[in-house]
Design brief:
single chain, mainly alpha, Helix Hairpins, elongated
Length: 66
């Protein structure tokens, strides 16, 4: 997911997206452990998307305090 797309979302939408990505990461790890994951790079991409969402949430939190 593009960072620009994430910046357009509200805080509630970002929290929902974070929850969805966390569940997806769990499922990807599970499928990887049992050998059914076709694209191991999807783990890396999912982790990066989670980091992007967390970064944007933190930026907004700091902006609200200022």
């Amino acid at each position: 997911m593009k960072t620009k797309e994430l910046h357009e979302l509200t805080v509630d939408e970002l929290n929902t997206k974070l929850k969805e990505l966390s569940e997806e990461l769990f499922n990807l790890r599970f499928r990887h452990a049992i050998g059914q994951l076709e694209n191991p790079a999807s783990l890396k991409n999912c982790k990066k998307d989670i980091a992007k969402v967390k970064t944007i949430l933190r930026e907004r939190e700091l902006a609200a305090k200022a």
